[in-house]
Structure formats: structure tokens, C-alpha cells
Amino acid sequence: MNPTPPLLCWLENDTQQSLRWHSESGMAPPKRVQIADDRMTADAAYKLACEGTGLLWRGDFQNARQLLQALARRIDKKPEKSAKKTKAPASGAEAFHLHRQAQSQRARVLAMVLIPFDADFKIPLRRAPDVQQACSEAYPLAAGETATPFVASLRELLGVVGAHEWRKKGVEITAIAGRIHPHYGVFSPVRGEYIDLVAKAPLPGNELAFDIGTGTGVLAALLAQRGIKKIIATDQDPRALQCARENLSNLGVAQQVELLETDLFPEGRAPMIVCNPPWIPARPSSPIEYAVYDPDSRMLRGFLAGVAAHLEPQGEAWLILSDIAEHLGLRTSAELWSWIEAGGLQVVGKMDIRPQHPKTADTSDPLHAARALEVTSLWRLKLV
Hints:
The chain is α/β, with parallel strands linked by helices. It has two domains: 7-165, no CATH class; 171-383, Rossmann fold (3-Layer(aba) Sandwich). Helices cover 34% and strands 23% of the residues. It contains 13 helices and 15 strands. It has helices at residues 42-50, 61-76, 80-85, 92-110, 132-138, 154-169, 193-200, 218-225, 238-250, 298-306, 324-327, 333-342, 368-373; strands spanning 7-12, 15-21, 32-36, 53-57, 113-117, 150-153, 171-173, 178-180, 208-212, 230-235, 257-261, 270-275, 311-322, 345-353, 376-383. The strands form three sheets. Strands 11-10-9-12-13-15-14 form a seven-stranded mixed β-sheet, with helices on both faces. Strand 12, helix 10 and strand 13 (311-322) form a beta-alpha-beta unit. The longest helix is centred in the first third of the chain and has 19 residues, at 92-110. It is globular, with a radius of gyration of 23 Å. The protein starts with 6 loop residues before the first strand and ends with a strand. It comes from Undibacterium parvum. Pfam families: MTS (PF05175).
């Protein structure tokens, strides 16, 4: 039985009204809501949004977008006086937590601009774009669920539209000589260095491999192209499995890959097990961030603790992991080694590569010091 969806309630024309509230990040509907249109100034909107008042838009859609941009500029503007007084963070961990706190606050304020949707995903506003296809991809109906009008934040809608464009265009992956098309809520493999490591590492065999946390299916596709006869790819997110299914089919390797909805391992053993867990031990603030943030290193520790029970005696487990958490002070190298040893594993090889993404050279990034030192590694592990 589906849970009752939350409602956004407001007063309009002296009448109490309500609509279904939708938030992919799990944000609760604002308790205070004010009707807003083209007459509202950016300063007035900013004050209300900072106070947690939702602004239900009734004006021109394109003006709502401009208002959102104006709010972002006000958030990002740093007063010179306060900037001079602000002390540099004492540690990488402090810099990270301050950065995440600022990101969270920024997201909360920008999420206060609200857009109404009809049941068929049309937006009943002037100059509103056609977002029906993008929304139907991001918000599929559950079995037995009936489409109803709803309200969501404009910021979320823009993310849905952006994801739709990424899905259409795809991401070129040199190692597989093809494109991966990420779905909404499934992390895009834009950082190709870890894929290059998997493409170059010597295979321990070609009969069977487990791909743990497959996501878009990019590593399963690569292993299939490298000659692995059968791959069992797991994920606990139905969106990811649907995404992987389409990508594997497009790349012509679907017959080699079995997709399974489960947490971590399938039943049985394999001579090769691959896992690229989230790299940063922190709490995600939205579903898509689960590919980046792993609270208390749950997936990493679960993989290392359980892989021995699923690995063939002479097999190899490949752990693909960045050391960014170590440079941020969120995890130590000693902790990682202790988890490897506690799992009954030994390191028989390690391949390293430095990331090439633009943030490594962006000195204005609050986390630049850690990013400049980051190394991504493929750890080749065997049973002790």
C-alpha cells in the first residue's frame, strides 16, 4: 500500500487550498506559503525564502527562472567585511562540513520557488516549456498509482530537465567506444579515470564476474566487452537497474549481463568481483548523492567485510576508490587497511591515476587543497 503523499497547503482568494507535494530530496513541504507573481521583487522573495516561506508562482514561467537566478546571486554574494573576518578552516574536515552546510542552506532557500503541475505534467503558467517527457522519466507512477496535480520546486524541475538532456545526449566513454545514457537520479560516469583503470587491469579470468552497485552499468558493459562471459550486476535502486538495462542493450552486451535488485552481493561465488562504492563518508542530501556520499562508509565496509564469502579461492576483488576522504580528514588510510585485513583480504596489486576533471585546477573551490592531492586507485584484493 502506497503511503499518503504529503500536501502543500495555502490560502488563496480567501480559500484554503492544497495539492500533492513532490520532492526528490525528501524535503518537507513549506509550512508557510505565499502566492507570488511577476510583481514580486527579488529582494522581497529572498527575504521570504530565507525565512522558509514557499513562493507558489502564478506569473510568467520565464520570470520565475529569472527570479531563481536572482536569488542564487544574492546567496553567492559574499560581503567584503564578513569575508575579511572569516577565518580559514582549521582542517580539511572542517572545510568540507562548512562547504556542505553552505550547500544545504543554499539548496533550502532556492527550493522555496514553487511551480504547480497538472496531472499530465503540464505547467499551467504563461511561457512554460513542455516538460512532460522529462517529468514522466523522472517521476514514473508506481503500480496502481493515479496521476494527480502536484507542486514541486522550480530548482528540482530544472534538475529534471537537465537530466533529461543528459539522458538524450549521453556521455562518451572512450573505454567502451560508446555512450552511456544516465537516467534521472543515477550518477553519470563523468569521471572517466576509474573506468580507464578497469579497462587496463589484468583480468583474473573470463568466466564470471560480479559488479556490485552497477549504477549506469558502465563497468558491467566494459567487463562484457573485455570478454567476461557472464556478469551479475547488482544495485538496490530500481532506477539504476532500469538505466543499466537500457545502456547494456544499446551497447549490445545485454545477453552477457544479469541484473539483480539487491544490497551488495548476489548468491554464490565468483572469480572476479568489482565494486566502485561512493567515495566520501558523509550523509547524502538527495537520492542522486548516494553515488557520491556513503554514510559511515557503509557500502565500503560492507563490501570489504562480505566479499570473502563470495570470492572464489583464487579469485580477485577489485575495489575502485578515491583517497579524497583521506585528504578531507573524513577517513584515514589506516582505517581502510584495517577493513581490508579484517575482511580476510590481502592486497596483491594497486593501480593509481590522478583525476582530470576541471575542479582539480579550480583554486576558488573550497575543497581545492584536497582535490589537488586526490588519487583514484584500483585495489586488487585476494583471500589471505
